[in-house]
Amino acid sequence: MESDTNYMHIEIVSDWVCPWCYVGKRRLEAALAQRPDLNVTVAWQPFQLSPDMPREGRNRQEYYREKFGPERAEMILNGMKQTGVDEGIAFGSHPDAVSPNTLSAHVLMVWASADERIDTNDLAEKLLLAHHVACEDIGDHTVLTRIAAEVGMDADDVAARLAAREDEGVVKERIAEAAARGVSGVPFFIVNGKYAISGAQPADILVSAFNQIAPGN
Question: pTM here?
Fold first, then answer.
């Protein structure tokens, strides 16, 4: 039987449109691969970088240029593409790509997290891939319903519940709770309910933190 020192619960506070959240997921996976002795559970917690984004979203290139300025927006995008190469993520771009409102996508994760048959890490990967690589609109309920079906959720049930805007209040409450816990940017990792790791830290930094939190046997 494994010692309690090998158990680690990791809450990942993230927003699906955040490229560093995708990088952080990859680096976390690399770090955990170096500690195969750990008994890890993961919970995905919501955050919205742009909570006032219209429900239909906005053109991504226009939004980035408006938010950061044309030159800085281009620098950020090019920088992320290079970082993606290093992490095995092929960040995509398309002139019609959308910056979505991520509320419905977070709702989907809430439902998946309540169903032990669903692999929430698989869902997270598909949401991140859809937005950052395939340049799909993850604010579109049709896209979300398809992704839900891909991970084993009932497509008809998901479509109906998304249309009814079920549990959007739950997501907003959890975002408020994260803010109350000191989260102001993402990704943000909370380990065993008390240890905080901010940002997409390199794998070796994460391993060092895990070795202190869960030294093992």
Answer: 0.95
